[in-house]
Amino acid sequence: MSDKQKIVIIGCNAAGINAANAARKTDPSSEIIIIQKEKVPAYSRCGMPYVLAHEIPKFEDLIIFPPSHYRMMKFDLRTETTAISCDPKEHIVEVESKEGEKEKITYNSLVLATGATPFIVPVKGQDLENVFAIRTLDDGREIQEAMKDAKSAVVIGAGFIGLETAHALVENHIQTTIVELLPSIIPTLFDYDMAGYVQQMIEANGVKMLMGKRISEILGNKKVTGVKIGDLKIDCDLVIMATGVRPSVDLAREIGCELGITRAIRVNPQMRTNIPDVYAAGDCVESQSMITGLPCLIQLGTNAVRQGKVAGINAAGGYSTFPGVICAAMSKIFDFEIGAAGLTENQAQQAGFRTVSGIITGATRAEYFPGAKEIRVKIVAEPYMGRVMGAQLVGGEDVAQRANMLSIAIQNEMTVRQLMNADTGYAPPLCDTWEPIALASEIAAKKIER
């Protein structure tokens, strides 16, 4: 190898592009090669439902950087190229272009940003026409085209992507049913009480929801005509699989990377794998909870961005660490927002903690000010010191920044007593004198005192 540092990054979405940018800033002279399986590099998957809902004009708007960025940063970007093998002892990656041409590339450091792949429910009819996953830009375009003639649709899965896609379908005047195997929606973020409240709001927008139900078959000859749930048949001409994703770890497994209990790649705080000079970041890696200290799989774009930055800095010879995850997530569905940070009561109890909680329904502005909207806040805490462990929010506006505020509070191990006494601001068109977070924290604090 030459004296110049050579970094190969496999994958060019949130983790991959941030690894590349951080590596370039750390070592301006390094040679950086990015291998991207898709035709388009670095775009926002999270924005696709909002393109389908016509809130974002077109899929091209989701592309994060123009081609000039890659030239300016002197990246050797190889799109429509697949990493087919790796020899970590010799520091060689073998790649194959869409034309079938193979090439062996040497490296000093390798970053695996291989992401995740959609989980497809293994039922009869899954390969019928108009049955889609929603992960790539091509998926989005195909769904958009199919929606033009669709009258009814079934969304399988009630996580964020499933709910956002249902919103998009309704915006296109398509009769929509959500089918969820578990008894409540977004169970990794919301407890039953808050999830039930959100479900009522979704149903009020015309979505039919079937909870605790399993799809047994997708019906149709060539094209989907319906789904079966036990003895129940639902007619539809469009099915969206929004059943989550699985870490893409085939290459990592082949070269001997250790996998964690979540079946994602195990890394240390520097995003190093157990293989020398091999790093990993994004949806393919296992994280550590800052609350419990336990391994977890939190596949959020925010985590991928931060992990990619850490991996890129270290791959280029710098030093950086990733502190772990809180799991702060939010979304907008129909005319309301939902958000969460930290653990649900159920998750905390499964990790061995006792909990107390406080729930309050307040207003986003002074109640007398026109346009004030309802917001419901739930605070989860442990009952000894009152440390905040999680929060869930639903409201007409201003959910995201409150969820971010609570994520910071959890990260800094604040207690409900500290939150209830927080010195918050007041302005009639912006917020009430009593901050809903403080009120919910006060309720939890009183339970602790009792």
Secondary-structure topology with pairs:
Layout: E1 6-10, H1 14-26, E2 31-35, H2 48-52, H3 67-72, E3 75-78, E4 81-87, E5 92-97, E6 102-106, E7 109-112, E8 116-118, E9 131-133, H4 137-147, E10 152-156, H5 160-171, E11 175-180, H6 192-203, E12 208-211, E13 217-220, E14 224-229, E15 232-235, E16 239-241, E17 245-247, H7 250-254, E18 278-280, E19 287-288, E20 295-296, H8 301-315, E21 328-333, E22 336-342, H9 345-350, E23 356-363, E24 374-381, E25 388-395, H10 399-411, H11 416-420, H12 436-449
Parallel strand pairs: 1-2, 1-7, 2-3, 7-18, 9-16, 10-11, 10-16, 11-12
Antiparallel strand pairs: 4-5, 5-6, 8-17, 13-14, 14-15, 19-20, 21-22, 22-25, 23-24, 24-25
Q: Give a count of the beta strands, DSSP E runs of length 2 or more.
A: 25
Poorly predicted regions: none
Q: Given this structure, which CATH class of the largest domain is correct?
A: Alpha Beta
Strand-pairing-aware structural class: alpha/beta
- Proportion of strand residues: 25-35%
| Sheet with most strands: strand arrangement | 3-2-1-7-18
What number of domains? 3
Q: How many DSSP H or I helices?
A: 12
The biggest beta sheet reads: 5 strands, parallel
Which term fits the overall shape?
Answer: globular
Tell me the CATH topology of the largest domain: FAD/NAD(P)-binding domain
CATH superfamily of the largest domain: FAD/NAD(P)-binding domain
CATH architecture group name of the largest domain: 3-Layer(bba) Sandwich
Report mean pLDDT, rounded to a whole number.
Answer: 97
End-to-end Cα distance: 68 Å
Radius of gyration from the CA trace? 23 Å
Helix content: 25-40%
